[in-house]
Please model this.
Amino acid sequence: MKAKNKIVSLRALKAKLTAARKAKKKIVFTNGCFDILHAGHVSVLEFSRAKGDILVVGLNSDASVRRLKGPTRPINKQQDRALVLAALESVSYVCIFEEDTPYNLIKAVRPDVLVKGGDYKPTEIVGREFAGKVVRFALLKGRSTTGIIKKASCKPQ
Model:
């Protein structure tokens, strides 16, 4: 499947997941800004996909990223971020959401497994009540978009 065809609206996603459930597929959900894709992102996406048959990635919209990360973010626009994510073999579908949290998207998806980074306490994981199971992923040390941006903005001496 072409990457661009894996970027779907919520309505299209719900239809695809209904068919997947009928076929007894296990649905996994994770989310994030995925502004500058790095090894930590790839690790969590591969980890997430290994938990089921279909991996849905909720992607924060540009407006949502600005509210969460500040006026200089995102570095890459939402359609570009979505296309890069969709090109990864581990990702089945990408759905962009406008809110600051994926609560409504998780409520609509009702995943069998919800994956979040280990930096979240179990009680802080948004949408956990709509998932069959919540799994936390141990983040890779030293891998963050903010760190990459800081490193890139340093001037050589």
